[in-house]
Amino acid sequence: MATKSNDVETSALGLDDIHETLIEIAYKAGDIITGALPATNGAGSKKNSADLVTEYDRAVEKMISTTLAEKYPHYKFHGEETYDPAHPLTDDPTFIVDPIDGTVNFVHSFPCACVSLGFAVKRIPVVGVVFNPFNQTLYSAVRGRGAFMNRTTRLPLKGESLEPLSGLSNALISVEWGSERCGKNWDTKLRTFARLGQTKDNGGAMVRSMRSMGSAALNLCAAAAGTIDLYWEGGCWEWDVCAGWVILTEAGGIIVDGNPGNWQASLEGRRYLAARASPQAIGQKDIVEEFWSHIEGRLEY
Ligand code: IPD
Ligand code: CA
Predict the structure, then answer these.
(1) Which of the residues 94, 103, 188, 192 is marked catalytic?
(2) Catalytic residue from among 100, 173, 287, 295
(3) Ligand 1 within 6 A of CB of 81
(4) Which of 125, 154, 183 marks a domain boundary?
(5) Residue (of 62, 44, 40, 46) closest to 54 by Cα position
(6) Residue 40 burial (C-beta neighbours within 10 Å; 0-12, 13-18, 19+)
(7) Which residues take part in binding Mg(2+) (predicted)?
(8) Could you tell me if residue 46 is inside a domain?
(9) pLDDT tens for residues 123-136?
(10) Residue 103 annotated as catalytic
(11) DSSP state, 265?
């Protein structure tokens, strides 16, 4: 079926075929990931000891890029482990891939990691496949066609019974520590976390609680499923969010800038605030504005 949305024409791109291919690749990647035996002290550091890469990240990315190059030689590839700052993302149809999102979890055998396979056109995510092989959960979406868990369960999980969003004090939210552990962004995160958790009498939002899944893609999928209400992060990259972005927005969620004021997040913006769906969008904008009002400082990347 042809899909024309207001900003990107996708009918000639074969999105269904790409969706099926990405699902096949995700299962293959899952076998590599679950068959691996990473050592907690054997992972290589990129920027520091919280920013890791293993031989498995590289092997999975190689398998993915080789398979995609054979099947779709005309589309570009943008993967975390082969990213070269001299070749940033363009408007061309591009696969945007994180071979293992949640590498710290993977290294520690904490079962919350996934392969994240996105496809974007004009920097707009249009196909997304996220697979956590540890619990065999597949999330996928094609722009304009809805989002699904394990191919058949439509997201959000509660469907028509989903409750409206009703403010931060009733919300379970996800935040991430990230790997940058000093400076202005670190300070902004810590002060914001404190305010989000604090009682209202003390100027806080008193959120129900905060979670850190250790994977941007799985945070976005949890918001798509409706099992968390909001997800805020600064510092992650387009390969962390591209696939989850389609899954979230197809499930009725929204993704806005992680700094206050901008309702349209940019794929490469490295600052994101995602909110789950809400019936008739009730409370969706309100909760975003409430969250923005509790950010202490600004995220700068
Ligand atoms: C990381 C995860 C984590 C987020 C970091 C990302 P990686 O990706 O998505 O949740 O906090 O910003 O870099 O390193 O596991 O692919
Ligand atoms: Ca990764």
Answers:
(1) 103
(2) 100
(3) no
(4) 154
(5) 44
(6) exposed
(7) 80, 98, 100-101, 240
(8) yes
(9) 999 999 999 999 99
(10) yes
(11) -
Atom of ligand 1 nearest to the CA of 216: 9
Q: How far is the CA of 103 from the centre of ligand 2 (A)?
A: 6
| Residue 286 among the catalytic residues | no
Is pLDDT of 5 > 70?
no
Quote the radius of gyration of the chain (alpha carbons, Å).
Answer: 18
Give per-residue pLDDT as tens, 163-211: 999 999 999 999 999 999 999 999 999 999 999 999 999 999 999 999 9
Domain boundary among 133, 154, 175: 154
Active site residue 91: no
Answer yes or no: is 298 within a domain. Answer: no
Ligand closest to 176 (CA) is: 1
**Do 215 and 122 belong together in one domain?**
no
Bridging pattern class, strands 153-154 and 137-142: unpaired
37 shares its domain with 139: yes
* The amino acid at 66: T
The boundaries of the domain holding residue 112 are: 15-154
Active site residue 31: no
**Ligand 1 close to Cβ of residue 61 (< 6 A):** no
DSSP alpha helix (H) spans, 127-276 = 183-197, 216-225, 238-250
For ligand 1, say whether the CB of 235 is within 6 Å of any of its atoms. yes
177 with 235, same domain: the answer is: yes
Counted domains in the chain: 2
Nearest to 157 by CA among 55, 34, 279, 251: 251
Structural domain contains residue 70 = yes
Is residue 4 a part of any domain in this protein? no
- What is the rounded CA–CA span in Å between residue 271 and residue 256? 8
57, 61, 98, 257: which one is catalytic? 98
